[in-house]
Amino acid sequence: MKDKYILVTGGAGYIGSHTVVELLKAGYTPVIADDFRNSNKNVIDGIARITGKLPVYEEVDVTDNAALKVLFERYDFYGIIHFAAYKAVGESVADPLMYYRNNLLSLISCLELSEEFNVPNFVFSSSCTVYGAPDEVSVDENTPLKEANSPYGATKQMSERIIEDVHGSGSKTGFIALRYFNPVGAHPSSEIGELPIGKPNNLLPYVTQTGAGYLEQLTVNGNDYNTADGTCIRDYIHVVDLAKAHVKALNWLEKNPGRFEAVNVGTGIGSSVLEIVNTFERVSGIKLNWKFGPRRSGDVEKIYAKIGKSRDLLNWTAELSIEDAVRDAWNWEKKIRNV
Ligand code: WQD
User: Fold this and answer.
1) In sequence order, what DSSP letters do the residues of 23-64 get, joined into one string?
2) Ligand 1: does its nearest atom lie under 6 Å from the Cβ of 242?
3) Distance from Cα 232 to the centre of ligand 1, integer Å
C-alpha cells in the first residue's frame, strides 16, 4: 500500500506525540515537523518504544513557509494535522503579539502549502476556548461563539475563520477543526506524557508536580462559584482518547472529501477542581498540599461538551475515565521525577 504521509506540525508536543502514536498504529506514515521550542527530542524515542517504529521527524519552524515547503517537495502529503501553536492562556495575555504571529502565521503557512500541493485532508487543533464564556454550560458546535477570553482563544477563533474562508474559496481540501476540551493524562506506558516548561498553567500537571514534591502547594483558584463544591467545572479528556479522535477525523475526511466541519472533542462530563484533587488523592494515596485562593481572571465558571456530533459524524467517543487520566498522569510524573 502506498505510504499515506501525514504532516504533523508540533508532532513532538504533548497532544501531537500521542497522535503520532495512534497514526502509526493505524498504518499512516506521520512526518513530524517541530522546532522543539516547546518540546523535547527524546519524545521521538518514546514514540518508537511504544510503537516499535521510529517516526520521521524534520526540525523546522512551521511559520517559515520556505523551510516548510521543502517538506512538501520531499513528501507527497496525504494529510496535515496542524498542532504547532502556543497554548498558555495567561502567557497570551502578557504577550499577545507572540501568539498572533506564531499561531496565525504557522496556520497560514500550512494552508498556503496545502493549497499549492493539493493536500486532500487537513485536521486543525482547535479548542473549546473558541466558545468564550458561553451562555449554556454544555456547548455544541452550533453554540454561538462569544468573545474569546484571551488572545490565545482569539487565535483559535481566527484560525477557524481562516480555514472556513479557504474552504469557501473553492479549496478541494477537506477540513476538520477539532475543538478540544481539557486534555489531561499521559500514555499508559509512561513512555510519553506532558512536559510543561516551567511552572504549569494547567491544573493536573500542577497537582501531580505538587504530589511529587516538585512544587510546594496547589492553589485552588476560587471556591465561590455557583457549583456544587464552589470550584470551576471543566470537561477533562484523556490525551489518548483525544489522539484517537484525530485518526477518526482523518478517516471521515477520506470518505467525505472537500467538506469543512468543526467538532467538539470532550467526554460530555463535567468535573470540578476539587473532584480532580480528590481523585488524585484516591489514586495516589497521597494527601495533597493545597489551599483555596482567589478566582483566576478569565476563568469560565463551567463548561463541558455536547458530544453528539463527534459520536455521530466521527464514530468516536471517549473511552477512558478521569481516574485513568489521573493515574496515567501520576505514573508519568513519578517516572520523570524518579519518585
Ligand atoms: C482548569 C481549572 C483553573 C491551575 C486551558 C485552555 C484550554 C486548554 C486547556 C488548550 C480552572 C483551575 C488551574 C491551578 C487551579 N488548552 N486551576 N489551580 O483554563 O480550563 O483551559 O487549558 O487547548 O484552551 O484555556 O485549564 O487546567 O488551566 O484550569 O485551581 O494551579 O483549574 O482556575 O478553574 P483551562 P486549566
Assistant:
1) HHHTT-EEEEEE--SSS-THHHHHHHHHHSS--EEEE--TT-
2) no
3) 9
